[in-house]
Design a protein that fits this description.
The structure is a single chain. The chain is of the alpha/beta class. The chain contains 11 helices and 30 strands. The strands form 7 sheets. A 6-stranded antiparallel β-sheet has the order 20-21-22-29-24-27, with no helix packed on it. The protein has a 5-stranded mixed barrel with strand order 6-9-7-8-12. The chain is globular.
Length: 473
């Protein structure tokens, strides 16, 4: 049985300000107006034969976001495994391998990062089938992409002699993100391909090799899996064994050290959508070499990527630039510095800026809220509650809330009273009052919430009941 494993744990820092820690790049529609990178990844599986439902490994903060995006494209995963801490791909795949073996003792894994673009799905499916043949012979297969340019943001794999049967080749070397000069030499040699981060191997073989090379990772992952708990539609992994687990990629932990590694070459219009240059490379450009998205006005601008999310952006007299606007942040940089956005992110981290964590619109399992305006002792939000959804039964120690319904019908619990609130009607929730907001209708409920008080942080929530099993967000 071939079981896809979708790795969706990254934060996408090089795509800030669009990608945020609580709404990462794989959940954004970066190359498709309707589908996120994650949704494109799972839909791509339909091109392959005899594919089982996927296992998704993600950070616990993204669980409801991931589940909702899968539901939107009618994909019911075999499991959504929640990592309490990020420990790179080697531990994540060990966890997925244990889960796959629970499903089928002969499971083979197809490892797919959630942030890739693949143009030719038939070529992708053909390469997967080729890799499966090698995996059946005991190989751990890396899928290498035919390199189109000396890219310094990708790792490289050097191919060796062809394997018997001609399905693939041996691997002689892995190289992590070389200099431009070295990358150009790799391209000229014809022996190297890009390391796509996609792999195919039997689950039991991966665990066996991991035990040989990285016993501490294998032990930590097994302990975490054995002590995992079911939480609604999720598998919640315990913090303690993973907290002490070494942080290593599958490349360093296994693939560079195993004698069973094999390479299958893939030519399918592949891109790792890891930074703004990748989006400029991938999308069609106008006659001046520009890519413009949203409300953009340009004059004497060339070879630039300009994206406006919430307002008009006007650009004059620039060349080779990236300009990205969101509701609460703007990035302007030279396009050649796409790999260096992390330096900005580090400054945001040191300054504990909220713009690194989330957008002005924040998504929750019941819907979303948008911060409209805030000041000393007050904050105004717009809430959208999905049909049939409800916020938790909760209270606040430091703030009162005023609710005004602008669309739909809300069911309000306030103290010992429960009542309906229609459009243009309002209610007041005093400090310390136990309350809940629900949408009993068939259309979205929208309301304006005015918070007043000495402290307005999201951690001022004491929950008593929650249909989503939350105690943390």
């Amino acid at each position: 049985m071939l079981i896809p494993v979708i790795l969706s744990g990254g934060a996408g820092t090089r795509l800030w300000p669009l990608s945020r820690q609580r709404y990462p790049k794989q959940c954004l529609p970066l190359l498709d107006d309707n589908l996120s990178l994650l949704q494109q990844t799972v839909q791509r599986l339909s091109a392959c034969d005899d594919m089982a439902e996927p296992i998704v490994v993600c950070h616990e903060e993204h669980r409801f976001l991931i589940a909702e995006q899968l539901r939107q494209v009618d994909v019911k995963p075999a499991a959504i495994m929640l990592e309490p801490v990020a420990r790179n791909t080697a531990p994540a795949l060990a966890l997925a391998a244990h889960q796959a073996l629970k499903i089928n003792e002969n499971a083979t894994l197809l490892v797919l990062p959630a942030d890739h673009f693949i143009e030719d799905k038939k070529a992708f499916a053909k390469a997967v089938n080729q890799a499966c043949l090698l995996a059946q012979k005991g190989h751990l297969v890396a899928m290498g992409v035919k390199a189109q340019s000396p890219h310094t943001g990708y790792g490289y794999i050097r191919s060796g002699e062809a394997l018997a049967g001609g399905e693939g080749s041996c691997i002689t070397r892995f190289v992590e993100k070389p200099t431009l000069e070295k990358a150009a030499g790799f391209i000229d040699s014809g022996d190297y391909c890009w390391n796509s981060g996609m792999f195919v191997f039997p689950a039991v073989d991966y665990l066996s090799e991991l035990e040989s090379f990285e016993p501490d990772i294998a032990k930590s992952a097994q302990a975490a899996f054995l002590n995992a708990e079911n939480d609604l539609d999720f598998i919640r992994l315990p913090l303690k064994p993973l907290e002490s687990c070494p942080t290593k990629s599958i490349d360093y932990a296994v693939m560079e050290r195993t004698e069973r590694a094999a390479l299958v070459s893939l030519d399918c219009g592949w891109r790792d959508i890891g930074e703004w240059q990748a989006l400029w490379d991938q999308q069609p450009r106008d006659e001046r070499g520009n890519i413009c998205s949203g409300q953009v006005v340009t004059e004497d601008v060339s070879n630039s990527y300009i994206r406006a999310e919430s307002r008009l952006v006007a650009v004059l007299g620039l060349d080779n630039q990236v300009v990205v606007e969101t509701a609460d942040a703007v990035l302007v940089m030279d396009r050649s510095r796409a790999q260096d956005v992390r330096a900005i992110v580090k400054q945001l981290e040191s300054g504990q800026r909220s713009e690194l964590q989330e957008h002005r619109t924040v998504y929750r399992p019941w819907g979303s809220y948008e911060r409209l305006v805030s000041g000393p002792r007050f904050q105004v939000k717009r809430l959208m509650v999905k049909p049939g959804a409800a916020l938790s039964l909760q209270r606040h120690k430091h703030r009162a809330e005023h609710w005004v319904v602008v669309r739909g019908v809300g069911e309000i619990t306030s103290g010992d009273k429960t009542f309906l609130l229609n459009e243009d009607q309002s209610t007041y929730i005093p400090v310390g009052t136990c309350h809940r907001l629900a949408n009993p209708g068939m259309e979205p409920l929208e309301l304006i919430e005015v918070q007043t008080g000495a402290y307005l942080g999201e951690d001022d929530i004491e929950r008593f009941e929650d249909i989503y099993g939350r105690g943390d967000c």
